[in-house]
Structures are given as structure tokens and as C-alpha cells.
Design the sequence.
């Protein structure tokens, strides 16, 4: 018999991340490497385990191979459990035929059976696309205190970015009055973080109702939340303070990486009380040779550095040859940078080999004007020596 | 290798060798090494990489940190339904009576050996650091139809002082013709690696024979099982051609740690022929500050460096503040080196704290050791 769980988490990890170009050619957005050793989904999975949530359904759809291999049976997050733990939930076929997940709400709807096994009171719906550290147990307490039926975590964003998100209008004691998904003219800059706490029995009815509506796009933000509001349900906003990022584009991925390198980063990876767990590649410590230099950088295990690394992030097993300079860049796992190479403002894919004396990325030369674009080098590329690779300006 | 099991016996070595502070609260096998490993990781990973799925570890004393490190054996893929990792502490740790010596501990747990389905045993001590695939030695053992194969390393003449190690002499057919019961008698460069390959029935016989009569209380596998039987048993020697660090003293620990700063040594020890596994502790990547200057050093994850580090090994989670200098030193997990402090040829045990402006200096022969959680 399966033990009852108070709260079950459903993690939406099927995102394609279309605006991330070749980075998401072979993997889903939650599987994108970040911060020198993590994948984006590690943040939400670690949040779950650090918040005491031990039952997590991960909904995959787009390019799930890397994600599936990464999550496995959940060992790094202590989610390999007899009761609960992590379950990978891909779309499946049944008697009436197979179906893809049509939208976020439909993905949960199709897995009602999975959730019902645990007979939970509350259902936490989160997205594997976001980078943040959040204690979901505090969200649950807030939800219970207000006798809420659905609670949406919200954060303030700069006005110019607000129209990319779901916008909330909030009244007395955080009660949600209005919810608009990506409005062209946002009325507030309080946006939904894509973190929802529901009373499961109520949500279940709404999911069924939404499914019957043929005109619905089966999305939480567009359909289910507005429907609950229309019917006068008690919905509250949970104000979150701290770092939260939806890295939707290559620019924002690069920028969030650079944000980790400032003196006091907003996202503290060194917090021992709230560790971010990931699959350990089990490499030896990094080696910096005589003559090497590393400044303002995050460097992961297994790296071997003969050259200079400045303001950059190196994933595990990266080699930087003598005389090479890596600046303002992100180098993914096991890439090899030869001798005398210059890399500036670039993202270099996994296992890529850069030949000697290449120049990769824009050379600003200290001149003013508009900032240079990011140069993206695909994974497993072989770049012969003496090549010059620059970003194509958009 | 389905028919081969591994035994790591930590019972003989501890107490013989003095690593001062480093072994105050732990056995030699559990001493941190190479920025993130413990000494036992090497022999254990070697066994697993050779396809051995059943490993028994005989511990004698100070094994709390070892147990914490080994856990269920998951890291080495030894958390198994069938076989896996067996940790075998002494039955009665304080008993003055009863059989002792490394054979004594095997005798106490003879049921473990009997119950294991494997026919051949790779038997090793716990203070050797090397990277090898035992499959080669095991097939040599089979080809020669040996009763016992001892692994040795030819250290070459004229190098370091070998008088502390037990040596072996071979004839042209690789048969062992002489072996030291006590080190320091033979003049030769082949040292015994504290590793033998032996058929399990013979091992069981040697153990039980040891404790047959009255009055036999101390028994050593080498001295009582191998040395007296050199002519009656077929005992062969098999060479280890790679790097070997036999850790038996503080200066030796220091020297071999520093040896890792040669990339060819660390590449071999960490990767070749197999990966060395260890418990991971989910530290973030190492962080280098604006003024960090780190050269010829090994740095583990979770370090945050703002000062200067030269020719040193930094374990996980070490913090080096601005203006601090670390030179020719080994700094273990979670140590804190405050502003302006300076270390020269020092070994800091875990979680030590060197306060602002302190200067510590040791020598190569006698590196200064700062104990675990000490505040200086």
C-alpha cells in the first residue's frame, strides 16, 4: 500500500526553450547546463528535497533523453525512495490512442492517476525552467494560513519585462483579483513565478472541467487560473523575495551566468543550508599550472588550466591550453581549448575542441557602442586551428 | 572476475606507522588525500574497476570516519543485493585474549570468507596509493597456476630509502625465492605492495592452521603464511609498473601529495587505467575572486579563493581570504585562512582556522601539522 502524502509536487519539464537556439537542439530547457555544474532543473529538484517534499512527478515531453539520464532514480536529490521519490512521467498511449501533453494543465490532467496514488491534500505545480531557491514548505504554510484554494508565488520584475509573464492584480491580504497571461500592456509588475500550490480535490475538478472545454488551451495561466477566479475561488499571491530567473534566451542565460561572478551574487551557490544537488561527474580536483591565472570565475572539478580564465564559468573537465585567454564566457563540460586561443563573450558547447590560435567571440577592443553579441559554439564541434569565429549580429 | 573477491585488511598497518595528528582520530586508510579522496578510495576503486563485486574491509580501530566515508558502498557500486561491501570490525575490540595479528581478524570473520562464493581472493592492505587493473595480475596467477601471487613494485636503486619496506627477491621465472619478514635486511629494490592473490581454499587453510595449536596468538599472513612456505608453495611475484605511494609516515604523505602537482602523476593516479571514486559532497564549483592568484595547485570544489596559492593542494570548501598566502601546503576540507595569514609547508587537517596575520612554517622533512578543528 502506498502511504498518503500531504503534498505532492508536479514538475513541468517538457519545455522546448525555442529561443535558446542550438542549446536546446538535443535537450529540453530544464536540462540546460548552468552555473558550472548544474542543470536548470537541479534548482527545483533541490528546492523540493530541501523543502521536505519527497514525492515529485517530473513531466517530460520534448527531447527527454538527457533529462531522463540526469534524473535517473533521483539519487543526487535523495529522491530514491520506497514511498514516493521521483517519477518520470512522459506522455503515454492508452486504449483510446496516444496523446501529447497539450498544455501545462493537460499534463497534470493526464497524470491524475499518478497523483491519486498518494491521495494528497495539496498539489505543488512547479516549472523546471526557472532558477531560484525557494522553501515550498513556507509557501504551503502561507497557503494553509489563508485558507487558500490556490496560491501563486509572485515576484516583482522590472516593468519593461513584465509583459513576458503572467501578471497579477492583488487586493487585500494578497487575494488575487485578476490574472492576465502575457498582456501587451501589463497593469502591474507583479508576475507569476509559475509556482502554484493547489488544494488537490479542488484542482482536480477544475482540471476535468477544463478538459471538457474544447476551446481551452489547457494551460494553467491562460485557462485554469482565470476560470477559478471567474468562479470566485479563494486565490492568493505569495510574495517571493530573492533571485528568480527564467532563462528564456541565450542572452539571459549568459547574463545569469555572469551574475554569479559578481562580488556578492544574488544567487548564492555556497549556502550550505540550501545546497543545490546535481549528478556528480566524480572528477579529480582542478589543476592550475604554473603560469595559469583564474580570476572572478567559477571553475568545476576536473578542469586543467594552463592559460588565463577571467570572469568565466568552466564546467567539469575543461582544458585551457597555455597562452589561451578565456574571458566573459561559459565553457561547457569537457571542452578543450588549445594553445594561444582567445575566447571572449562566448558559450562553448560540451566536448567541443577548439584548435590552437583560434579567436572566438567578438573583440570589443574597448570601443563604445552597443554591446557585442554572444558567440555560441555547438557541442561536439571540432574547430581547426587559426579560425576566427564571431557572432552573427541580429 | 566474477570468481574473485577483494579483502582489504586494515588491521596490521595501523599502529605501526605514525602519521601524528592525521591519525589521531582516523585510520591510515581514511586519511584525506589528493584534494577530495581518502587513501582507501584507490585500492577500493581499483578492485571495483577490475570487476570485483564483493569486497570485505577488515577494520581494527578508529574507523568512525571510515564508516562515514564508505556508507553503503553506493559510490563504488557496492550497494548490492548479492555480494557488495562488507565492513568487518573486530568481534571484541578490547579483548586481550584471543587470536590477533592480521590473520586473527580474518579468523574472527572466517565465516564471511567461507560464505562468499568466490574462489580467488585479492588481499590488500590499506595504505597504498596506486591505480591498477587487477585483472592482469589475476590472469598471471591463473596462468602460472600459482598458489600465491605477491604484487611488488620495483622502486629502482639510488632513489628513496627503502629500508622501511618489506622486499621480495624473484628468480628468472618470477618465482619468489626470498621475502622479508621484517624490513631492512635484504638489499634489493623490489618492495612488497601488501597485496597478494590467493585461492580461497588455501587462504582458509593458512588461517585455520595458524590457530590450531595452543599458544598461537599472533599471526601474520606474510610472516606465518608466506615466508615459511616459499619452497613448499608456488609463490610468484607480479610487478606493478605504475606509480606507487606507500603512505607510512608524515613526510611520505607530504611528498606523495606534492607529487600530484606533476600532471603526469595525477593523470595516472586519478584516471589510468580506471577512475577513482569517492563520496561526493555537492559543493559548488570553486570560486576565484578578483585578486586570486593560484598556480601549480590542485583545487577542489567549494573552495573560495581570494588570496594567493602556490604549489598547494586545497580540499573541498576551503576559504582563502584576500591577502592570505598558501605555499607548498596541504589544506584539508573546510579550512579557513583569514586575511594576511600565511602558510608555508603546512598540513592543515579538516576545519582548521588560521586567524588573521598568523604565519606558520614547516619544512619538507618535517611539515607542520595543524590538527582537526584547531584555531590558530
Sequence:
Amino acid at each position: 500500500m502506498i502511504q498518503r502524502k500531504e503534498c505532492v509536487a508536479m514538475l513541468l519539464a517538457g519545455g522546448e526553450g525555442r529561443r535558446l537556439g542550438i542549446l536546446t537542439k538535443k535537450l529540453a530547457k530544464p536540462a540546460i547546463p548552468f552555473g558550472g555544474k548544474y542543470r536548470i532543473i537541479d534548482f527545483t529538484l533541490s528546492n523540493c528535497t530541501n523543502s521536505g517534499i519527497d514525492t515529485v512527478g517530473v513531466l517530460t515531453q520534448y527531447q527527454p533523453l538527457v533529462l531522463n539520464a540526469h534524473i535517473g532514480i533521483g539519487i543526487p536529490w535523495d529522491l530514491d525512495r520506497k514511498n514516493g521519490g521521483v517519477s518520470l512521467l512522459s506522455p503515454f498511449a492508452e486504449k483510446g490512442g496516444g496523446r501529447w501533453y497539450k498544455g501545462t494543465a493537460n499534463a497534470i490532467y493526464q497524470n491524475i492517476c499518478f497523483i491519486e496514488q498518494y491521495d494528497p491534500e495539496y498539489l505543488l505545480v512547479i516549472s523546471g525552467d526557472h532558477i531560484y531557491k525557494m522553501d515550498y514548505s513556507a509557501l504551503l504554510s502561507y497557503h494553509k494560513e489563508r485558507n487558500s484554494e490556490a496560491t501563486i508565488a509572485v515576484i516583482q520584475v522590472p516593468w519593461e519585462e513584465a509583459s513576458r509573464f503572467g501578471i497579477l492584480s492583488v487586493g487585500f491580504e494578497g487575494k488575487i483579483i485578476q490574472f492576465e497571461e502575457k498582456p501587451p500592456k501589463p497593469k502591474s509588475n507583479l508576475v507569476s513565478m509559475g509556482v502554484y500550490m493547489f488544494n488537490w480535490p479542488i484542482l482536480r475538478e477544475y482540471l476535468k472541467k477544463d478538459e471538457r472545454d474544447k476551446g481551452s488551451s489547457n494551460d494553467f495561466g491562460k485557462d485554469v487560473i482565470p476560470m477559478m477566479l471567474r468562479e470566485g475561488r479563494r486565490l492568493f499571491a505569495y510574495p517571493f523575495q530573492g533571485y528568480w530567473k527564467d532563462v528564456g534566451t541565450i542572452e539571459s542565460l549568459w547574463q545569469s551566468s555572469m551574475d554569479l561572478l559578481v562580488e556578492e551574487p544574488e544567487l548564492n551557490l555556497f549556502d550550505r543550508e540550501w545546497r543545490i544537488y546535481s549528478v556528480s561527474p566524480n572528477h579529480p580536483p582542478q589543476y592550475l599550472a604554473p603560469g595559469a591565472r583564474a580570476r572572478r570565475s567559477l571553475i568545476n572539478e576536473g578542469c586543467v588550466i594552463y592559460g588565463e580564465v577571467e570572469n568565466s564559468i568552466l564546467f567539469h573537465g575543461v582544458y585551457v591550453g597555455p597562452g589561451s585567454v578565456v574571458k566573459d564566457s561559459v565553457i561547457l563540460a569537457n571542452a578543450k581549448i588549445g594553445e594561444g586561443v582567445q575566447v571572449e563573450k562566448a558559450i562553448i558547447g560540451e566536448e567541443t575542441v577548439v584548435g590552437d590560435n583560434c579567436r572566438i567571440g567578438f573583440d570589443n577592443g574597448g570601443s563604445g557602442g552597443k554591446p557585442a553579441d554572444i558567440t555560441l559554439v555547438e557541442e561536439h564541434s571540432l574547430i581547426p586551428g587559426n579560425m576566427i569565429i564571431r557572432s552573427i549580429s541580429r | 572476475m566474477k570468481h574473485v573477491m577483494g579483502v582489504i585488511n586494515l588491521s596490521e598497518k595501523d599502529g605501526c606507522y605514525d602519521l601524528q595528528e592525521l591519525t589521531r582520530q582516523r585510520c591510515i586508510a581514511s586519511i584525506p588525500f589528493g584534494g577530495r579522496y581518502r587513501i582507501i578510495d584507490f585500492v577500493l576503486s581499483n578492485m571495483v574497476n577490475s570487476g570485483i563485486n564483493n569486497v570485505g574491509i577488515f577494520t581494527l580501530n578508529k574507523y568512525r570516519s571510515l564508516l562515514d566515508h564508505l556508507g553503503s558502498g553506493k559510490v563504488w557500486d557496492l550497494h548490492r543485493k548479492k555480494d557488495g561491501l562488507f565492513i568487518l570490525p573486530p568481534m571484541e575490540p578490547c579483548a586481550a585474549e584471543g587470536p590477533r595479528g592480521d590473520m586473527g581478524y580474518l579468523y574472527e570473520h572466517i565465516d564471511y570468507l567461507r560464505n562468499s562464493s568466490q574462489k580467488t581472493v585479492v588481499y590488500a592492505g590499506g595504505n597504498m596509493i596506486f591505480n591498477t587493473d587487477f585483472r592482469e595480475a589475476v590472469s598471471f596467477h591463473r596462468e602460472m597456476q600459482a598458489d600465491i601471487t605477491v604484487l611488488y613494485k620495483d622502486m629502482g636503486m639510488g632513489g628513496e630509502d627503502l629500508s622501511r619496506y618489506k622486499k621480495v627477491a624473484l628468480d628468472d621465472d618470477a618465482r619468489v625465492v626470498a621475502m622479508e619478514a621484517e624490513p631492512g635486511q635484504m638489499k634489493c629494490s623490489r618492495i612488497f605492495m601488501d597485496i597478494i592473490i590467493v585461492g580461497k581454499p588455501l587462504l582458509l587453510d593458512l588461517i585455520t592452521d595458524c590457530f590450531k595449536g595452543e599458544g598461537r596468538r599472533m599471526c601474520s599472513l606474510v610472516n606465518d603464511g608466506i615466508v615459511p612456505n616459499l619452497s613448499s608453495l608456488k609463490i610468484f611475484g607480479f610487478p606493478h609498473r605504475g606509480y606507487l605511494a606507500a603512505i607510512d609516515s608524515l613526510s611520505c604523505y607530504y611528498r606523495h601529495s606534492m607529487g600530484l602537482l606533476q600532471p603526469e602523476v595525477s593523470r595516472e593516479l586519478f584516471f589510468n587505467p580506471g577512475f577513482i571514486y569517492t563520496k561526493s559532497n555537492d559543493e559548488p564549483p570553486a570560486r576565484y575572486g578578483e585578486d586570486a592568484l593560484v598556480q601549480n595547485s590542485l583545487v577542489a570544489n567549494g573552495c573560495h579563493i581570494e588570496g594567493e596559492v602556490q604549489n598547494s593542494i586545497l580540499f573541498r570548501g576551503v576559504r582563502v581570504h584576500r591577502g592570505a598566502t598558501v605555499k607548498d601546503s596541504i589544506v584539508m576540507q573546510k579550512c579557513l585562512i583569514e586575511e594576511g595569514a600565511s602558510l608555508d609547508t603546512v598540513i592543515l587537517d579538516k576545519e582548521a582556522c588560521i586567524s588573521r596575520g598568523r604565519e606558520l612554517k614547516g619544512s619538507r622533512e618535517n611539515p607542520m601539522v595543524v590538527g582537526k578543528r584547531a584555531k590558530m
